[in-house]
Design goal:
two-stranded antiparallel ribbon; elongated; membrane; transmembrane; DUF6127
Length: 96
């Protein structure tokens, strides 16, 4: 690795060395970020898989809850229509 030089007030270094420097800095930053949230060590991959599984289960439960709400509202609306039709047609012998 050749030392960087200064040209016109800017630090200049070969592109491949600069990219290598960026890659090492990014890797260190990523490792530090994972360590900060407790996802470092030998169990990190299992922890991330478990988190993804929990997120998938939550999303499935949320989707199912919305489907249930839509079914309840639809069923209530249809029951109200049937009750209204039954009253209108005097099915129960009500009377005027």
């Amino acid at each position: 690795m050749s030392p960087p030089t200064l040209q016109d007030g800017m630090v200049v270094m070969p592109r491949d060395e600069f990219e290598d420097l960026l890659a090492r800095a990014a890797e260190r930053g990523a490792r530090r970020a994972l360590a900060d949230v407790g996802l470092d060590g030998p169990e990190a991959a299992n922890d991330i898989r478990e988190l993804r599984g929990l997120l998938e289960a939550f999303n499935t439960a949320k989707h199912t809850a919305w489907q249930t709400v839509v079914r309840l509202v639809t069923t209530g609306f249809l029951l109200a229509l049937v009750a209204g039709a039954a009253i209108k047609l005097k099915v129960f012998g009500g009377g005027q």
